[in-house]
Design brief:
The structure holds two protein chains of two kinds.
Chain A: H1 3-32, H2 40-58, H3 61-85, H4 90-109, H5 134-138, H6 143-161, H7 163-173, H8 175-180, H9 185-211, H10 225-235, H11 240-260, H12 269-274, H13 276-287, H14 293-300, H15 304-317
Helix pairs in contact in A: 1-6, 1-9, 1-10, 1-11, 2-3, 2-4, 2-9, 2-10, 3-4, 3-9, 6-7, 10-11, 10-13, 11-13
Chain B: E1 10-19, E2 22-32, E3 37-41, H1 48-55, E4 63-68, E5 71-73, H2 78-83, E6 86-89, H3 101-106, H4 117-130, H5 146-159, E7 164-168, H6 176-191, E8 195-200, H7 203-209, E9 212-217, E10 220-226, H8 231-239, E11 256-266, E12 271-280, E13 284-288, H9 295-303, E14 310-315, E15 318-319, H10 325-330, E16 333-336, H11 340-344, H12 351-358, H13 368-381, H14 397-407, E17 414-418, H15 426-441, E18 445-449, H16 453-459, E19 462-467, E20 470-472, E21 475-476, H17 482-489, E22 499-500
Parallel strand pairs in B: 3-8, 3-9, 6-7, 7-8, 13-18, 13-19, 16-17, 17-18
Antiparallel strand pairs in B: 1-2, 1-4, 4-5, 9-10, 11-12, 11-14, 14-15, 19-20, 19-21, 20-22
Helix pairs in contact in B: 12-13, 14-15
Classes of the chains: A mainly alpha, B alpha/beta.
Bound molecules: adenosine-5'-diphosphate and magnesium ion (MG).
Chain lengths: ~325, ~500
């Protein structure tokens, strides 16, 4: 493989990862606030279909994106209402929604099957795209890819650098303590769940209007992406940077599966297609290894200086979910 | 910002609060002048926390008035309360364990979108230095002791401008040294004109600290007393009757129940080695030390829950080194952990189900009728306030502890307890110890951990002191004073002791 192909390939990875990044960041916000939006898989499909349908009918691609965002936000609103206000199980509600949304998207999407529709144009950035290597890699993509880069940074800065972001961490961790510190816990949970849902909807629209442009029903290859995004959220330890890393890793593994297929004729193509999934699980295991007791024991036996360094590293790698994830809050 | 704000008088007028049928606060009238430490005393369930939550905006009273410096105010939320200068340290520190101390400190402080962490860290360190707290702003809260987490909360509330500081049972779960430090801080604050409201069910604490003590019983304010206090009077007010503390009785030497020969124990933080101890039936051994000094691993090693890395462990003269918890259990060892609902009892199951589960299994199906009879029996003989069908989490702490004791099998040779009376009122404490002493008379030995030094000296025959991986030789409890013990757990005065060789 020559350098040119490699760069084009990697740029493709960044491009293909954009919707996963949106979905993962959306879920990260929602879960940081304490709400699991399990409807993600169906929500992505429905917003992909809806986004495409609106863009096709209105011939306006931005209305298509808007529709995707609104659909995702609306589904998230149902999750929020059921879990925060009605105090129902988030898992049950999300699971039912994910099935309903999927079937709904196949059913309502029938008239739009395989139609040639609008597609987000690529938008090379003047000057920057001319820089060797970096230019074609980073600055020769479309608007949504650029927005995904920006969003990773914004989400990270919001959670870790701003006052409301700090409160968001608190709300997911210990709502009672956040309440004592002045937070309107349930309102904030609504806000972040709906906002996160908007990003999940954006992910759907980005598929149908850019990454896998068009609507092809059950053969769109979108079913399952939401579940992957859910696991990447966990892998990402609810940290936008790590979550984005997970999204890119997954897209990279998928690309490698495609690229390596011709050179590894002995391996059935299905194996390479499925390989990213177990690999993600392995990475998850590795990342959370610091939680295991035997690791602590092994560490204890090491010389003090090595132990310190390793313990720090494991602590930094280790991610525990927001302690109040999935738990309704009542201020007595 | 911080200390040095204007003083403030707090008045509560005719506060009522109901929880369903429970009248948790019944017409409470209280006046707390600035610059004083006001004690709120009462047994568990008396309504102390409720009253304080009303004052701090955590909950709203059904009726009644709050006046600050003579002006009536309405406090809708904790955020409102802190605006008015009222800050509360909750019974269970309301902080964020996986986050750093500095973030905990900063969280909830209002200001621009991007907080200036450097400036905040400076404020943090200045305030900490002022009270002589050694808190690292970068440490994670889950690595701090309960006492340090309290210090962090106190600093935070002062930083937010609290002029009235409410502390709900702050001496539960902290070491004697941290308690002394806390009291010193509170005295310092009142000397500067702050108002401190100190809630406790511990007589010793309110006696040494408070200027005035208001006693609550069953939701009512039953009396207010000024220092100097008479213990007898306070106890009478608290319980409406006199209660005598059980006298200590020396246990006669029995057969050897537990023997440790050159035992070494290791967990991630510390290593203790060459521990030798011989415990006889009827004996009570107290384990003293600050939290995390090694007494936890030690007691788990005695229970077979933690494998020893060297030496021999003998129970009833049988070598059980390296054997499982079940082997220890079969040999008459029982362990009652501190976290009653996490390790000891199963939330969601009823008392009957617990008693059925604790019996030796006979067949696959549960004998419901027999179980209920057994439960009724134990409930009455252990004086548990609950029914056979009460779930364990609906019981109060004291009754959960009684249930745990009632679950112990017969006969037992060694009972290991972690903080057996933490968070319990005096009545329950005395009750629990009477039951335990009965077990001793039947020949069982007891080893217990407590952070309450008085409890250790009162009930133990011998005491082991733990300090960062060092274990003292057994001290005779009748010849040891609280001060000596306090020094030892803080690492002072070890030179004069013959210690078991160990390295940390
Ligand atoms: N949120 C609540 N819901 C129902 N009952 C409560 C609640 N909080 C307290 N109570 C009841 O009110 C009474 C007083 O409780 P509390 O104020 O916590 O007592 P204390 O702090 O003196 O131990 C108890 O009977 C308790 O069970
Ligand atoms: Mg209380």
């Amino acid at each position: 493989m020559d350098t040119q192909t490699l760069i084009t390939g990697l740029a493709g990875v960044l491009f293909a990862a954009a919707p996963i990044v949106f979905a993962v960041l959306g879920e990260t916000f929602s879960e940081r606030a304490g709400v699991i939006n399990l409807s993600m898989n169906g929500s992505i499909l429905l917003s992909a279909m809806g986004g495409f349908a609106v863009a096709y009918s209105t011939e306006n691609i931005f209305l298509g994106f808007l529709a995707g965002v609104l659909i995702g936000a609306f589904v998230a609103l149902i999750v929020a209402f059921a879990s925060i206000t009605l105090k129902q199980s988030q898992v049950a509600v999300g699971f039912v929604l994910t099935l309903v949304c999927r079937d709904l998207s196949y059913f309502l999407g029938n008239p739009f099957m395989g139609l040639p529709g609008p597609r987000l144009p690529s938008l090379p950035i003047p000057l920057l795209s001319k820089i060797p290597v970096i230019g074609p890699l980073l600055f020769n993509a479309d608007l949504m890819t650029y927005f995904s880069y920006l969003l990773i940074f914004l989400a990270w800065a919001w959670i870790y650098r701003t006052r409301p972001g700090l409160m968001l961490q608190g709300i997911g961790e210990r709502p009672a303590a956040a309440f004592v510190r002045g937070a309107n816990v349930n309102l904030m949970r609504y806000v972040y769940t709906v906002l996160g849902g908007g990003f999940i909807g954006l992910a759907g629209a980005t598929y149908s209007l850019s990454v896998k442009a068009g609507w092809n029903g059950t053969i769109s290859g979108l079913d399952g992406i939401g579940w992957i995004a859910l696991s990447i959220t966990i892998f990402g330890g609810w940290n936008p940077l790590r979550a984005a890393f997970g999204a890119y890793l997954f897209a990279l593994l998928q690309w490698l599966g495609l690229v390596l297929q011709p050179s590894l004729p002995g391996i059935p193509s299905q194996v390479l297609q499925v390989a990213p999934f177990p690999l993600m699980i392995l990475t998850l295991l590795f990342v959370n290894i610091g939680n295991a007791e035997w690791v602590e024991r092994t560490l204890a036996a090491m010389p003090e200086s090595t132990r310190r360094v390793l313990a720090r590293l494991l602590r930094a790698l280790r991610a525990s979910p927001p302690a109040a994830l999935g738990v309704p809050f009542e201020s007595e | 910002m911080g200390v040095g704000n204007l003083p403030m008088n707090v008045e509560l007028k005719h506060i009522h609060k109901h929880f369903g049928k429970v009248h948790a606060n019944n017409d409470i009238v209280l006046n707390v002048p600035s610059g004083t430490i006001q004690g709120i005393l009462g047994e568990n369930g008396a309504g102390k926390s409720t009253l304080m939550k009303v004052l701090s905006g955590f909950i709203q009273a059904d009726s009644g008035e709050i006046l600050l410096d003579g002006h009536p105010v309405t406090i809708h939320s904790p955020a409102d309360a802190i605006q008015h200068g009222i800050g509360m340290l909750h019974q269970d520190p309301l902080d964020f364990p996986p986050m750093r101390a500095l973030d905990n400190f900063l969280l909830g402080h209002s200001g621009g979108l991007f907080p200036d962490r450097k400036a905040v860290a400076r404020d943090f360190k200045r305030l900490a230095a002022q009270f002589d707290f050694s808190l690292d702003p970068d440490s994670y809260v889950d690595s701090l002791t309960v006492g340090e987490r309290q210090q962090l909360e106190i600093l935070r509330l002062l930083w937010l401008g609290a002029r009235v500081l409410i502390l709900d049972e702050p001496t539960t779960g902290i070491s004697a040294i941290q308690k002394a430090k806390l009291f010193e801080t509170l005295r310092k604050l009142t000397a500067q004109g702050m108002t401190v409201i100190f809630v406790s069910h511990k007589l010793e604490d309110v006696e040494v600290l408070c200027h005035t003590v208001a006693v609550l019983r069953a939701g009512k304010l039953v009396g207010e007393v000024k220092a100097p206090f008479q213990t007898k009077k306070l106890v009478e007010l608290m319980f409406g009757k006199e209660i005598s503390l059980g006298a200590r009785q020396a246990a006669g030497p029995g057969r050897s129940v537990l023997e440790l020969r050159g035992v070494a124990i290791e967990d991630i933080r510390l290593r203790m080695s060459d521990i030798n101890l011989s415990v006889r039936g009827g004996e009570v051994i107290g384990l003293a030390g600050m939290e995390g000094s090694g007494q936890g691993p030690f007691i788990r090693a005695c229970a077979g829950l933690m494998r020893t890395v060297g030496g021999r462990v003998l129970v009833n003269d049988r070598d059980l080194t390296g054997k499982s918890y079940h082997a220890f259990k079969r040999n008459g060892v029982s362990f009652l952990p501190a976290s009653r609902l996490e390790e000891g009892l199963v939330p969601g199951l009823t008392l009957t189900e617990h008693f059925v589960l604790s019996e030796e299994t006979k067949g696959l199906f549960i004998d419901r009728e027999g179980g209920r009879k057994l439960a009724e029996d134990r409930i009455s003989s252990f004086n548990i306030r609950g029914t056979p069908l009460s779930t364990v989490e609906s019981l109060s702490g004291g009754n959960q502890q009684r249930a745990l004791l009632a679950l112990l099998q017969d006969p037992l040779s060694l009972i290991l307890l972690e903080h057996p009376t933490r968070g319990l009122d005096i009545e329950s404490t005395i009750y629990i110890w009477n039951k335990l002493k009965e077990r001793c008379k039947q020949g069982a030995a007891i080893i217990f951990i407590s952070s309450d030094l008085e409890e250790i000296l009162q009930y133990s025959d011998r005491v082991l002191v733990f300090f960062s991986g060092k274990v003292s030789s057994p001290l005779d409890a009748s010849k040891t004073t609280v001060e000596q013990l306090g020094n030892l757990i803080g690492g002072k005065g070890w030179e004069s002791l013959k210690t078991e060789k160990a390295h940390g």
